[in-house]
Design goal:
- The protein has one domain: Farnesyl Diphosphate Synthase (Orthogonal Bundle), CATH 1.10.600.
- It is 73% helix and 1% strand.
- The protein is built from 17 helices and 2 strands.
- It has a two-stranded antiparallel ribbon.
- The protein is globular and about 60 Å long.
Length: 332
């Protein structure tokens, strides 16, 4: 491995190692997002898919399959499936959240309209199921179909918990496991299933993806309040939208009466005034909520790395191990 490669970020190392597979995945994505009768579909899809995302989830599928010795064609289908499911959920999320920016660019619902975003998201879900079926594996279909349902459940749970300052850490974890970790876990798991691994390795791949996804989402929530990888994010969006993320939940749990009144007004009732974001940050810092949330993300990162102990040693396992460290380092 060259010095430049050794010093690059883990997801960049994975992309370089899997470059041939990723080229095939991208070609399949472009081919399957085409529509002969509705040109808006590829327009909307391309706006998001080609907006500079890391392709992290499809890379997890490719890396898991390759790490487990797979040399057939269907890991490409599964990686494209995972990216389509992810893109569909982003299109729907931006409508639900009335978002205006994603990855530093205007959202599809802003450039076109909510109807287009919802319907194109539906189209991508349908395409993803077509790709699953082409693998000929009912096990793969079962895993990814369950993941799609779990993602929807997580999003609905988050919607019902919004602005509810009684939201607990257990509810937060269920939301995170649903809306984020479910697809991470499915992405790694199906890579092993398509390679024909035994139950122990399949479970290890699931556990890795689950823990990695939880760490990733906790850090993503922390990045709403600033961090080293917050480029392209609108700082404070979660606060203004009344989302009960881990640092907020912990700050509320430690609040005195005056602080609790602040959280009731801003989060519970949605009355955010100038300077409130800075005050929220001060309260979270006062009670160590940001630091403790990062420590929790680190704990999940360690669980992800431990799960890899059941997988075959090699460069790909090392990169997945380093990736678990990287997702937390984003908020250093």
């Amino acid at each position: 491995m060259s010095l430049d490669t050794a010093m690059s970020k883990p997801h960049e190392q994975l992309a370089a190692t899997l470059s041939d597979d990723l080229t095939r995945v991208n070609a399949m994505i472009r081919a399957r997002m085409a529509s002969e009768h509705a040109p808006r579909i590829p327009e909307v899809t391309a706006h998001l898919i080609e907006a500079g995302g890391k392709r992290l989830r499809p890379m997890l599928t490719l890396a898991s399959a390759r790490m487990c010795g797979y040399d057939g064609p269907y890991h490409i289908h599964l990686a494209a499936t995972v990216e389509f499911i992810h893109t569909a959920t982003l299109l729907h999320d931006d409508v639900v959240d009335d978002s205006r920016q994603r990855r530093g660019r205007p959202t599809a619902n802003l450039l076109w309209d909510n109807s287009s975003s919802v319907l194109v998201g539906d189209y991508l879900f349908a395409r993803s199921f077509q790709l699953m079926v082409e693998t000929g594996s009912l096990r793969v279909l079962d895993i990814l179909a369950n993941a799609a349902a779990t993602i929807a459940e997580g999003e609905v749970l988050q919607l019902t918990a919004a602005r509810d300052i009684a939201t607990t850490e257990d509810i937060y974890l269920r939301v995170v496991r649903g809306k984020t970790a479910a697809l991470f876990a499915a992405a790694t798991r199906v890579g092993g299933v398509i390679a024909g691994v035994d139950e122990q390795v399949e479970q290890a791949l699931f556990d890795y993806g689950d823990a990695l996804g939880i760490a990733f989402q906790i850090v993503d929530d922390l990045l709403d309040y600033g961090g080293t990888d917050a480029i392209g994010k609108n700082i404070g969006d979660d606060f203004r939208e009344g989302k009960l993320t881990l640092p907020v939940i912990r700050a509320i749990a430690a609040a005195d009466d005056e602080e609790r009144a602040f959280w009731v007004r801003t989060i519970g009732k949605g009355r955010v005034e100038e300077g409130d974001l800075d005050h929220a940050l001060a309260l979270m810092s006062r009670h160590g909520a940001l630091a403790s949330a990062r420590a929790t993300a680190l704990d999940w990162s360690e669980r992800a790395k431990a799960a890899l102990g059941h997988c075959t040693e090699g460069p790909l396992r090392s990169m997945l191990h380093d990736l678990a460290d990287y997702v937390v380092a984003r908020v250093a």
